[in-house]
Amino acid sequence: MRASMLAVIFAGAGLLNAQDTTTSMRDYLAPEKSARNIFEDPKGASPEFDGVKVSIGGDFALQFQAIDHETPTDLGNYTTITTSTGPGPVTNTAVTRPNALVVMGNDFNLPTANLDVNAYLAKGVKMHLRTYLSARHHNEAWVKGGYIQVDDLDFISEGFASNIMKYARVKVGMDEINYGDAHFRRTDNAEAINNPFVGNYIMDSFTTEAFGEVYGFYNNFTAMLGVSNGKLNQTPVKGTNYNSPSVYAKVAWDKQISEDLRVRLSGSFIQTNGLSSGGNLFSGDRAGSRYYYVLLTQADAMGTANYATGRFNPGFKKVKAVQVNPFIKYNGLEFFGLYEYVSGNKAAGLTERATDGDYTQLGAELLYRFGNKEQFYLGGRYNTVSGQDDEVSNERKIERFNVGGGWFMTKNVLAKVEYVSQNYNNDPVWGATSALRGGKFNGIMFEATIGF
What we know:
Layout: H1 2-20, H2 23-29, H3 31-34, E1 53-70, E2 77-83, E3 92-98, E4 106-108, E5 112-122, E6 125-134, E7 142-150, H4 162-165, E8 168-176, H5 182-185, E9 208-218, E10 221-228, E11 246-256, E12 261-272, E13 317-330, E14 333-345, E15 357-370, E16 376-388, E17 396-410, E18 413-424, E19 440-451
Antiparallel strand pairs: 1-4, 1-5, 1-19, 2-3, 5-6, 6-7, 7-8, 8-9, 9-10, 10-11, 11-12, 12-13, 13-14, 14-15, 15-16, 16-17, 17-18, 18-19
């Protein structure tokens, strides 16, 4: 049923694209699908408007996972309840067994898919909507979010505020906020074509909230100021919640210095102010991580429940976070860096702890792209997170190393392979019987992805 519906949708999309869009229009509506290393949408002259244009796009991704895991920790016991189904009275039998890690095999993960709808609604006004058709966390179709981006105000009257809009942009929606540069290179469910590796960063700064952003572009500089309501799940009911907006900003400098050299440097800041809102910066992904079921035990729920394995969420409220990202590309050599510092209070509901905690994340990617179209690449990524939940807690530390490569068969089809190794420090701060205490996993991941 779902397959047949998708066939109809994408067959219809082909007709729409053939009749209503051009190659340049598709590139304008979805620049991240037409070229690599796109950050904010480029600011330039808007295409002329001669009617609504609609472009249908999509993403597909499939992994083959061959990962092992281990932990030195005594995982304790777990209990299962068996209910009798035969004739006679219903009885429940409790059986207690020693807990152990789930046994990992080598096999395929659940395929993931996205459906994108992009529309040109007026001169300089475009809309984006993304639906997760299948995800690790939501096997059913689930709307991720969308936005409207305004680069011209000609829909009010021709040339209205054109001297301002030449340098300005307004973006509003219910979608991912523009904090940091790492989210431009991350895997968004099935959109994995801009991620040179299989997984995202350990602390995955990504959340979808109701937001408004104002941009200014001048020469090689971009400045942005944004505000969101701090909520991942929307409701007008206040109750006893302590809700407060989140404020964030970014400044970036990006220049093609020569034909061979491009340099970008960006800095972002976010402050969240609520106790029942604003805590989603590192837990807002509704899709799920790529390293399926690592360091889960027999007592843990499988399926869609434990969807963030391999990631770390500090769980702070009243967050202050900074992310700095350098990007350098010289011919085929490419470097992307990440420095992130986050502080906040690990409150339980509306009850705050006596002291705040903080975590630092470092990341560095080095790639070499080669081939006549740079269709091949090799590279590595180092990523570490360390910090404390509060001033009296022990330190947590996570370290990951990836090395791999990829082949762009076309600009929309990518096959990649990586070796990943991740380990956690052996400290009771993870929990006396937690598999994360001294746990580690390593192995090979293959991924094939299509994005258009």
